[in-house]
Amino acid sequence: MKKIGVCVVGLGFVGGQAHAPSVNKIKNGNLVAVCDMNDKLATKYSTKYGCKKYLSVKEALKDPDIDAAVIAVPNPFHYQVAMEFIKAGKHILLEMPLGVDLKQTDKIIS
């Protein structure tokens, strides 16, 4: 079975130290990229995990190796980032809350 190329978006404590190292522990998981607008964090974790780094979601979405994203950005940005990956045909794992209101949550799950 093909490995699933995953990008972790948002490299705060949970994204960088919990989600990113967990991806390669999942059967058929492959951490191919990390994404954060903070270049220092993106460089730190791309070096640590031996993967590509992106400073924007738009940049990451151009990478054909990314099949899915683990979204660990601050809550107010969950909807925006999730919808960009969904519209690009990518799978997502989104931290809670899915959106800041029921309307956003309904759009994400539909």
Automatic annotation (TrEMBL):
Pfam families noted in UniProt: GFO_IDH_MocA (PF01408)
Domain annotation Gfo/Idh/MocA-like oxidoreductase N-terminal: ranges: 5-108
SUPFAM superfamilies noted in UniProt: NAD(P)-binding Rossmann-fold domains
InterPro entries in alphabetical order: Gfo/Idh/MocA-like_OxRdtase_N, Gfo/Idh/MocA_Oxidoreductases, NAD(P)-bd_dom_sf
Any GO MF annotation of the entry: nucleotide binding
This protein's name: Gfo/Idh/MocA-like oxidoreductase N-terminal domain-containing protein
